[in-house]
């Protein structure tokens, strides 16, 4: 597989229900599976408005874009041609509303804190961050949104099994449960996902990552 195709497979696709409400984010393979089975269509931003394509039409449009806009898309190579990776697809037969819950897991905590140590305030790669109990478990602290924060190794060691006050350390921001999925903000930071913004209305920020 070419590097270009591998890069394309690493992209994310926003999924809308049939009423154009954002419901989740999925991988490219899953998106193409839905398109090939005629369970979804591509929604493409074109000169400020959105156009809809079934899979066959999208393949045809891709040939034109490959020729004239090769740098404007991520690509997947088939045996005979390239297909542009869609940014948004719409499910044709699914009308359920998006979930309103944000899962309490490591990925969402890192996203909420935006990979920033909540003690020194510096950004770090995920591999250099850990999760810290603000009130340590030894002192009765629970694993909750309000008591878990990202911390770099240095700050985590310095704090040890103490509260921030005992350690003479201040929190960068008081932890709380997100009202929406912070992973959406992470994606919107990339130019390739800016076409999502219109569909991510405040009432539908709870996009579940699958």
From TrEMBL:
Domain HNH nuclease per the UniProt entry, residue ranges: 104-157
PANTHER family, per database record: OS07G0170200 PROTEIN, SLL1193 PROTEIN
UniProt xrefs under InterPro entries: HNH_5 (IPR029471), HNH_nuc (IPR003615), NA-targeting_endonuclease (IPR052892)
CDD domains attached to this UniProt entry: HNHc (cd00085)
Domain of life: Bacteria
Coiled-coil intervals, chain numbering: none
Gene3D superfamilies referenced in this protein's UniProt entry, alphabetically: 1.10.30.50
SMART domains listed in its UniProt record: HNHc
Keywords: Endonuclease, Hydrolase, Nuclease
Molecular functions (GO terms): endonuclease activity
The protein's name: HNH endonuclease
């Amino acid at each position: 597989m070419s590097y270009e195709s591998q890069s394309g497979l690493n992209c994310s696709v926003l999924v809308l229900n049939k009423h154009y409400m954002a419901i989740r984010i999925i991988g490219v393979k899953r998106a193409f599976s839905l398109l090939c089975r005629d369970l979804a269509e591509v929604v493409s931003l074109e000169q400020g408005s959105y156009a809809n394509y079934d899979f066959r039409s999208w393949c045809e449009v891709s040939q034109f874009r490959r020729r004239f806009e090769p740098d404007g898309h991520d690509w997947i190579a088939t045996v005979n041609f390239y297909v542009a990776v869609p940014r948004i697809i719409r499910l044709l037969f699914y009308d359920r509303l998006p979930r309103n819950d944000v899962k309490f897991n490591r990925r969402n905590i890192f996203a909420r804190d935006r990979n920033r140590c909540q003690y020194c305030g510096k950004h770090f790669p995920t591999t250099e961050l850990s999760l810290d109990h603000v009130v340590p478990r030894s002192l009765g602290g629970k694993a909750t949104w309000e008591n878990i924060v990202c911390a770099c190794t240095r700050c985590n060691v310095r704090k040890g099994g103490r509260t921030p006050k005992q350690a003479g350390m201040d929190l960068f921001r008081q932890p709380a449960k997100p009202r929406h999925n912070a992973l959406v903000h992470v994606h919107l930071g990339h130019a390739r996902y800016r076409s999502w913004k219109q569909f991510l209305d405040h009432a539908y920020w709870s996009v579940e990552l699958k």
